[in-house]
Amino acid sequence: MAPALSPTRSHHVAVIGAGPAGLVAARELRREGHSVVVFEKQKQVGGTWIYTDEVESDPLSVDPTRSVVHSSVYRSLRINGTRECTGYRDFPFVVRSGVSRDPRRFPSHGEVLAYLKDFAKEFGIEEMVRFETEVVKVSPAAEEGIGKWRIESTEKEKKVRRDEIYDAVVVCNGHYVEPRHAEIPGISSWPGKEMHSHNYRIPEPFRDKVVVLIGNSSSAEDISRDIARVAKEVHVACRSNPADTFIKQTGYNNLWTHSMIESVHEDGSVVYQNGKTISVDIIMHCTGYKYHFPFLDTNGIVTVDDNRVGPLYKDVFPPAFAPWLSFIGIPWQVLPFPMFELQSKWIAGVLSGRIPLPSKEDMMIEIKTFYSTLEVQGIPKRYTHRMGNTQFEYDNWLASQCGCSETEEWRKEMCLANGVRKEAHPETYRDEWDDHHLVSQAYQDFSLYS
Ligand code: FAD
User: In this model, does residue 3 exceed pLDDT 70?
Assistant: First the structure.
């Protein structure tokens, strides 16, 4: 174990992004005594939860010259976990009164944004945020001292480019912006329209069309049902389905699930592995996103390789730059907000010298061992940061470093129960449930914070 930094030192820290990760990072860093500047390219806090009707000029989002729209949220989106599980641990996402508030247990995106604004107000976060200020370059500034970082940013209104030095940088830029696409044999001569779910907002443009969605994510599940209300036919194709899959969804006469697409053709047809051939108007890729840090220049020390961001110790610190560069929100298949909160507490405590880190060599050994384990298990690099069932072990490890309590039992049970319900009843899980005893336990805990 390397010695901790000199105890309780305060540093000048830049946080990139004022979404759910950046907001709680700013709070924890300031609580720990650091001075914090949050860079946010949008006009308000909330990140991906700031819904906009605007979409990108390139519906597939591949044109590098396109103007990027940050949010991927569609108009009908309701959260896919309970509000009790979704909120930060010490600022529960409870029902609040107000004209446009949504009291449902699985509320719409607008309620999440309102909650994040409540959080920012409660903890005075906005005074640390420079809005409409985009970070365009982050690079080591060794000439300024060990561990220092140069941040170049542009302010939209004044069109000013600033160049500043910080002791540390915490990257919270969001990971659902740069789309991944499926490879489809024959696509270059297929005459239909292609798009990514990043640019989906409302069902109306799909009226009377035949649409294929590729993917099995929550987005594919929600969007296929949204579109099926107006489209002629909706076909969901998924790589993980067995080759003979062809299932009509109950409750619909125009929604089917298939195995993956085998090929597409000049006459507009789409051929599935299950042998079906269908003439299609639109293919929508609901195939997720790539980690993307267009501003980060580390001379190749931190890379994104087949969607593995690395090397990262515990998904947070690149050993070569620890603790002066860190990332929040890299793991997926998690309850994001509580994890962001714990990662933030850990980073803040490590920076002040209160919490020790292992030596760079030991961190690298742990990372390499983890990569080898994945390789032996045949897990592709792109799943490096997938957590699922291991998330609570990870959260508890972070909690132990920070001296906080472990994940509440009700939160674990509720999260697992919701996952089962979602799988079995994708249509109704947001409105019907039977875990009332867990809700009571959650609200008992929440009373500590009211
Ligand atoms: P974001 O919310 O994306 O925030 C990042 C911020 O960084 C943005 O404000 C952005 O403007 C800013 N930024 C980026 N680059 C720069 C730069 N260079 N300079 C300055 N600012 C910059 N999570 C749930 O818990 N429940 C759900 O039901 C759920 N549903 C989802 C549905 C969809 C369609 C998507 C896309 C995500 C969903 N998520 C859900 C996950 C969601 O992304 C997280 O809840 C959370 O928003 C991630 O927070 P973040 O702060 O990491 O990123």
Answer: no
How far, CA to CA in Å, does 225 sit from each of 76, 84, 106, 251, 423?
11, 25, 17, 10, 15
- Tell me if 134 CB under 6 Å of ligand 1: yes
Whether ligand 1 lies within 6 angstroms of the CB of 70 is answered as: yes
pLDDT recorded at residue 194: 98
Q: Please report the pLDDT score of residue 44 as a whole number.
A: 98
Q: Please state the atom number of ligand 1 nearest to the C-alpha of residue 48.
A: 2
**Residues 253-299: pLDDT tens digits?**
999 999 999 999 999 999 999 999 999 999 999 999 999 999 999 99
Q: CA-to-CA distance for 105 and 250, rounded, in angstroms?
A: 25
Work out the pLDDT band at 145, boundaries 50, 70, 90. confident
- Beta bridge partners, 252, equal none
**Contact 331 CB / ligand 1 (< 6 Å):** no
Q: What's the one-letter identity of residue 380?
A: P
Query: Tokens 């509580």 sit at which residue?
Result: 338
Burial track 171-186 (b if 16+ CB lie within 10 A, e otherwise): bbbbbbbbbebbebee
Q: Whose CA is nearest to atom 45 of ligand 1?
A: 336
Is 65's pLDDT higher than 90?
Answer: yes
Residues ≥6 apart with Cβ < 8 Å to 82: 105, 106, 414, 418, 433, 439
The model carries a pTM of: 0.96
CA 172 to centroid of ligand 1, rounded, Å = 9
Dist. CA 20 → ligand 1 center (Å): 7
